[in-house]
Design goal:
This protein has about 260 residues and is α/β, with parallel strands linked by helices. Helices cover about 35% and strands about 25% of the residues. It has seven helices and nine strands; from the N terminus they run E-E-E-H-E-E-H-H-H-E-H-E-H-E-E-H. The structure holds adenosine-5'-triphosphate. GO terms for molecular function: ATP binding; ATP hydrolysis activity.
C-alpha cells in the first residue's frame, strides 16, 4: 500500500460565474492518515472542494498539494459517492476489478485476486458473481467501497457515502469504514450532512459556510471508535458544539492551527 498522503489546500478558490465563488480562499491541511469530515449547509461548497481536491474541478485560484503526490490515473486516489454507481451489466467482482483494468495494473489473474480480496474486506466474499440489481442498497455501497479501495489508494474521498441508507446500515457501514481505515490507514476526506457520523468517523471536523471554512474542530472522542461511544455524554456534548458551529452560533473559537 502507498504511504498515506497529506493534503494541503492553499487558498483554494473555485468560481462558477465571473465573481460567483462556490469556494473562496480556503486553506486546510489534512494530515497523512487522518480522517477529516467536511460539514456545512447545503450549497456551502463541500462537494466543490472535494472535487477540487480530487483534481476533478479546476480551481480559479490557489492549489492543492499532496505529499507524497497521489495521482487518480494511477489509482492512488479512491472515490466513494452517495450513489454506488455500479455498472448494471457487470458482476460485483467485475465492478470492483474495473479500476485495476482501467489503470492496467498487474495480470488479469492478479487483478481478480485483488478484487476478491477487496470484496472480502467489505464482507462480500460470497456476492462476487451477483449483479447490482441482486444486491441490497447496503451491499451495493460495500461494493462501491471495495471498488474505491481495490487499488490501495493513499487518499480516499467520500461524498455523502451513506446518505441514502437507513440509520442501522449507516452505523454498520461507518464501523466498516473505521475497520478498513484501521487496516490500511489511508487519508480520508468525507463530506457528510450527518453530525453524529462526522463525529464517529473523523479526527477533525471542518465546518464550511458560504464557501469559506468557518472552523476546524478537534474531535475529543477517543480512539478506537465504535458506535457505543455515540451514547456517551462526551459525544452528546461535542454534538452540541458542532451543531452550534453549523448554525453559526459560535464566533470561530474552534479553529486549530493547521486549519486556519
Ligand atoms: N458545475 C457547476 N456550475 C455552476 N454552479 C455550480 C456547479 N457546481 C456547484 N455549483 C454551485 O456551487 C455552490 C456549491 O455547490 P456544492 O455542490 O459544492 O455545495 P454542497 O455544500 O456540496 O451542497 P450539498 O450539501 O447540497 O450537496 C452551489 O451554489 C452550487 O449551485
Amino acid at each position: 500500500m502507498s504511504a498515506a498522503s497529506s493534503i494541503e489546500c492553499c487558498s483554494v478558490g473555485v468560481a462558477f460565474g465571473r465573481n460567483d465563488f462556490a469556494v473562496s480562499d480556503l486553506t486546510l491541511h489534512v494530515g497523512g492518515g487522518e480522517i477529516i469530515s467536511l460539514i456545512g449547509p447545503s450549497g456551502c461548497g463541500k462537494t466543490t472542494l472535494l472535487r477540487a481536491i480530487a483534481g476533478l474541478q479546476p480551481m480559479t485560484v490557489g492549489r492543492v498539494e499532496m505529499n507524497p503526490p497521489a495521482d487518480t490515473s494511477r489509482g492512488q486516489i479512491g472515490f466513494v459517492f452517495q450513489q454506488p454507481s455500479l455498472l448494471p451489466w457487470a458482476t460485483a467482482l467485475e465492478n470492483v476489478q474495473l479500476p485495476l483494468d482501467i489503470i492496467g495494473r498487474g495480470q488479469p489473474q492478479e487483478r481478480r485476486r485483488a478484487a476478491l480480496d477487496a470484496l472480502r474486506s467489505v464482507k462480500l466474499a460470497d456476492a462476487g458473481e451477483k449483479r447490482p440489481h441482486e444486491l441490497s442498497g447496503g451491499m451495493q455501497m460495500r461494493t462501491s467501497i471495495a471498488r474505491a479501495l481495490v487499488t490501495d489508494p493513499s487518499v480516499l474521498l467520500l461524498d455523502e457515502p451513506f446518505a441514502a441508507l437507513d440509520d442501522m446500515l449507516r452505523g454498520e457501514l461507518g464501523e466498516l469504514l473505521l475497520s478498513l481505515w484501521d487496516q490500511r490507514r489511508f487519508t480520508a476526506v468525507m463530506v457528510t450532512h450527518n453530525i453524529a457520523e462526522s463525529i464517529l468517523l473523523s479526527r477533525r471536523i471542518a465546518v464550511m459556510r458560504g464557501g469559506i471554512l468557518e472552523s476546524v474542530l478537534e474531535n475529543p472522542i477517543p480512539w478506537p471508535r465504535d458506535q457505543s461511544q455515540m451514547r456517551t455524554a462526551e459525544f452528546a456534548a461535542f454534538f452540541g458544539v458542532v451543531s452550534d458551529h453549523l448554525r453559526g452560533a459560535v464566533d470561530n473559537p474552534g479553529r486549530t492551527p493547521d486549519g486556519v
